[in-house]
Amino acid sequence: MLRVKEVADLVGISVRTLHHYDDIGLLTPEKTTEAGYRLYSSENLETLQQILFFRALDFPLKQIRDIVQSPSFDQEEALLMHRKMLLAKRQNLDQMIKTIDKSLQHVKGEVEMTDKEKFAGFDFIKNNAYEKEARERWGDEAVDQSNEAIANMSDKKQEALNTEINQLYRDLAAICHNPPDSPKAQSLIHEWYRLLNEIGDYSMDAFKGLGELYVSDERFTNNIDQFGEGLAIFMREAMRIYADRRK
């Protein structure tokens, strides 16, 4: 068996990460000595390999835990799935690298690029990591409407929308020390609801559910909290209050 430091050095992750995985019940060491040392077995290492494959594919920790601890979990099937998904990811990355290389030639005046060629490899709508969850929570219709709305926007319109969204995140982060039911918070959340409905059709239940996802899915949390620590939780509470008041 290996101690936690030995596992960390072998795998290339931090001891703190392994402690966190243990704390949340994702990867429990085979045993813990009386002195408090965590000891990992070969089976633990196989599970850790699965966890890190899922992490490489941007699965949230909670979902990974549910998958690897499921009685129906099949290691061979999971490895085949990892391989398929990573090959698809590599193909997409290879295309993006080609786009970069050709763009460099274009900047130097060596080749001409069509507008379509400039965006080869970018497919944020089809490959959106959150789309599956959105479909499961709110149904295909709302997601299809959002995708269609984005697809029909001009590049300039998409850029303007992104700028407005980022500014709203910053405005919310600046007041997240205030109560989420304060007039200022609710006014900004109203703007958030308005922006979301420019690219979709969100009911109050869907809006409230989206706020829950900001906290339950660490990918959302990490992205939102870049604007200010605790912003995801603040937005969830403010969105819940906003939705409940309008039901």
From TrEMBL:
This is DNA-binding transcriptional MerR regulator. It comes from Geomicrobium halophilum. SMART domains: HTH_MERR. GO terms for molecular function: DNA binding; DNA-binding transcription factor activity. Residues 1-70 form the HTH merR-type domain. PANTHER family: HTH-TYPE TRANSCRIPTIONAL ACTIVATOR MTA, REDOX-CYCLING DRUG-SENSING TRANSCRIPTIONAL ACTIVATOR SOXR. Keywords: Activator, DNA-binding, Transcription, Transcription regulation. It comes from the Bacteria. Transmembrane segments: none annotated. InterPro entries: DNA-bd_dom_put_sf, MerR-type_HTH_dom, MerR_fam, TipA-like_antibiotic-bd, TipAS_dom. The keyword DNA-binding applies. Pfam families: MerR_1, TipAS.
